Amino acid sequence: MTQRKSFGSDNQAGAHGAVLSALARANLGDAVGYGDDPWTQRAAAALCTAFGAGGGAFFVFTGTAANVLGLSLLLRPYEGVICADSAHVNVDECGAPERILGSKLLTVPAPDGKLTPGLISTQLADRGDEHRVQARVVTISQVTELGTCYTLAELKSLGEFCRAEKLRLYIDGARLANAAAHLGCSLADLAAQADVLSFGGTKNGAVGAEAVVVMAEELTAHVPFLRKQQGQLASKMRYLAVQFQALLDADLWLRNAAHANAMARRLADGIRGSNAVFASLDPAHIARLQQDWQFYVWDTTAQVVRWMTAYDTTEADVDTFVADVWRTAQA
Amino acid sequence: MTQRKSFGSDNQAGAHGAVLSALARANLGDAVGYGDDPWTQRAAAALCTAFGAGGGAFFVFTGTAANVLGLSLLLRPYEGVICADSAHVNVDECGAPERILGSKLLTVPAPDGKLTPGLISTQLADRGDEHRVQARVVTISQVTELGTCYTLAELKSLGEFCRAEKLRLYIDGARLANAAAHLGCSLADLAAQADVLSFGGTKNGAVGAEAVVVMAEELTAHVPFLRKQQGQLASKMRYLAVQFQALLDADLWLRNAAHANAMARRLADGIRGSNAVFASLDPAHIARLQQDWQFYVWDTTAQVVRWMTAYDTTEADVDTFVADVWRTAQA
Amino acid sequence: MTQRKSFGSDNQAGAHGAVLSALARANLGDAVGYGDDPWTQRAAAALCTAFGAGGGAFFVFTGTAANVLGLSLLLRPYEGVICADSAHVNVDECGAPERILGSKLLTVPAPDGKLTPGLISTQLADRGDEHRVQARVVTISQVTELGTCYTLAELKSLGEFCRAEKLRLYIDGARLANAAAHLGCSLADLAAQADVLSFGGTKNGAVGAEAVVVMAEELTAHVPFLRKQQGQLASKMRYLAVQFQALLDADLWLRNAAHANAMARRLADGIRGSNAVFASLDPAHIARLQQDWQFYVWDTTAQVVRWMTAYDTTEADVDTFVADVWRTAQA
Amino acid sequence: MTQRKSFGSDNQAGAHGAVLSALARANLGDAVGYGDDPWTQRAAAALCTAFGAGGGAFFVFTGTAANVLGLSLLLRPYEGVICADSAHVNVDECGAPERILGSKLLTVPAPDGKLTPGLISTQLADRGDEHRVQARVVTISQVTELGTCYTLAELKSLGEFCRAEKLRLYIDGARLANAAAHLGCSLADLAAQADVLSFGGTKNGAVGAEAVVVMAEELTAHVPFLRKQQGQLASKMRYLAVQFQALLDADLWLRNAAHANAMARRLADGIRGSNAVFASLDPAHIARLQQDWQFYVWDTTAQVVRWMTAYDTTEADVDTFVADVWRTAQA
Prior knowledge:
By secondary structure, the first copy, chain A, is an alpha/beta fold.
């Protein structure tokens, strides 16, 4: 528990009140386990509708688990995953893709965190060579780990390129809601080019719940077994499902994301001379600010900090923080 | 949601009110993620005290995940796990030990679900033979999947045997609370012989939370990385931790388990002529009963059903069910 | 090097002279690596013809490697392999199927080492249950590890059962030559029901070479990548290939196997009162015999020994050995 | 079989006559399998002496297999391997490290194929962070895939850095002989800093044999099981062992390597204006040359070709080739 609003990560926020209320409402007597209950069926159906997904929506506990499950649907043992070198799957999952899937990541330097057909092409020269892992899946993060966002046109171009090259497209959507809010588009718009994608609840106000959304029906039959094998089959599934139901009701997910985005904009606007929410600061100022505020140094060498807003960051939180940043800078 | 109390599984029960209240109380503003928060630290410390564990307590989401994480602490790539053929790790985890750990299970037929030094010995002949997986871990379930329970003397004898044979002992404690209630002993008594064990919250009234308890301090350093790699690191960890805190407060876990045990006894007593909660019935009677009640046929060939009570099964639930069983049998 | 002919294992024999000559003949200047050479193409084509295989023949170094490669063609991550509990893949590969493939073996007790449709059926009850590994491949050894041999009728019945149940059939053919010699049938007869099978060269007079024969063409595209990934792609492939060419020329493989079989029969006939080449002996007699002769005690508890002949065991070897067995028994 | 001497790869050469003779000499009657024979013991002891290795020498079939076995001795599941991006383990093993070991490679761009303490340091920032794979092993190739060679001083500096940073050092020695010939040092000099290394026989005139040399005795106990599990335990081990014996006798390995090196120098000297054996050519000239000669285009974009000599490349081969290169260039 921190005294001041944290700018450390959107996963340091608590759960939205509506999510907790939904948990309480679901706590009515018995329900058949492992997802064969009305709450799970309703939430999964609602997600399928929102995403235009023919293959189903499946709940898991963490973002890493969602990525591993999603990718496991798409890969043979000798096939690899093209990703930006900054991708969460490459950097922040403690080697889960390699250990749990056994799959190689074919990383591409991408200064803004975004892949392009040109960047993907650099990993396609070795197709057919038995000494080389065969590129099969492209994974992108929307929004990326660097805070950038693919436009719908960019997504379309990636999708077309992947289909032409017989590559599958996976989207790590841990912050997909923020992308939808930013682009003013629907979840279905974001998912249209993907074969499989994740939809993050945890950073959007859930207690802890992620969904794996399967666009292609022919992949569906494998999911239950892989989810179970990967330790992600909740016995009391209803408590995962209703978190998503609460976020979907009256578009709470969108309001949460739009609010977090607005606070980031307010923060970026408040810090003139900085490059928005990623800011480069004097090390002494970083140290002084961190005495009172929670946030992370993103790049120790370049002294870049990352300030992150959440669905429950208030305008007052931002304004107080901005004032403190200025005060520190002038001290 | 079923109309009548389910006798299907203790994971069909909802969450205990105290657990839900704890979730709400923890929902106060921000907290640093991934377990570096006061709730997690308090609950982990409380578990360590209760178990006499020097190595720490770590929260995960499911029983399968707890078993995989626990076993992964104890195995080299060419080492195997001795278990009863009825063990959950062998039967009900969709091959997770083989897939996620890459480890072979060395199964032993055990009619009552319990291993003995003699049974374990049957798997030790090949030590040193490079063609054979080397036995390294013994895993037992307490209580077992067949509802039986190791006595403290049996546990001691297993522990001594394992130490003499340089075998590690893991306990799958998805229903460890029920064993403590049945034996009238402490959690530390149950854990005394183990190197690592799990402690199940979900079947004891949690929303969904399991703990991996590490007795031996030298294993601790590996846990955080393996937990993350296995997709089990909760960002908003506090919501896992407080579920255990709620169960530990005033020994709620023990009262829950004792109550579930008492209801099972009442059920067994009510069905004279049956072998307790595993009962063998006329197929026609099974079908008729299942129209109104939720429970599982355990063994289709032998027509054995399993009736399971939970922390929230009431005496009235049991009595109504028993009456219905008799009525059906006499129809 | 042992003084007397070994009855320990057919892999204790040296290489057949024709195999060594073939190595020398292939040692002519350069050849493109990794199998793109005329010797490999000729030997692979000859194997395909002999087996009636549409999918190709691929050379690897060991029997364990052949089994792992063969099975890896047939399994999804959550699918398992039905095998006899005495199968080499289960007992003698140090857990390679679990570690390298990540796949669970669903073992069936089979006193004579042979599976039947009835025995296989015992592993099919859980199809569709996400908590359980899904049976997908049946693997049999021909001849079995216990020296028994499936008849063509038995193979046909297994093949029909597997197709009806949508199971794939793999044959571990480390000693397939001995089966062909025993049954008086062709390799194509033995392979007719299989999807993939191995054909052992090492125990048939090779220096060290096994082939994975793929009956179904749609599996072929995966082999090169999996073979390379599994460490089995020979750069100087010609030296593997010509070993098989030497064995195939003028049916040397068949003569070798027929001879080894005949010597085993002679041995079994010589030891009246024993159950053929598996014999149960007084422990004192075993010890005395092993001072002069190389063979293995198969079952320490039952004092059963295994005597194994090879392609180069002579009638004199057998007769001397038999005389010694009798002398020892009467001492 | 190619008409003219291949400059494609040193694995396109045949086997040295002394190696084939050794195979024939070892083909004397029976020998106990799996390495418990006098040839294997003698060759392993000779390698240990040559390398100053306390932990033993173990024979396997391929370079990929040697690397996988060697690395598997040094890694926990959440630990990673620092390597140059051009390393064979990263580029040319079809993802075996990820699939067979489950381990992540932490790649570093290294234009000359050589790692330095400075380059390694770039991968050490995340130690202790549970979200990140923990760097544990540094692997270098000696000589590198780009034909460069670490000096003894560079090796010493790497060794000291690794020990100071608690990193293990593995050397991929597929062409270690060429490095020894180039540096004029012993195998023990090359191995002094390593924990484990491979020693390639195949490219040095063997039929197909690699050795894994273990410097540290405490690692030895694991090797037999891992080698078996990874499909690399030869039953007729003697035929692997004597290949190395033949290469070690009277330093044939060194003469082979020195000769191959000299031919490469002669080739490089012959092609003035080229950057040695990696040469950048007009695409039209490449095509014309490849009509008569076997070699590979290393980098399609930059039109760089790689010309490789072997232990059996003659001066006449080189001179004819050089003349042809000039003729083509002037056409």
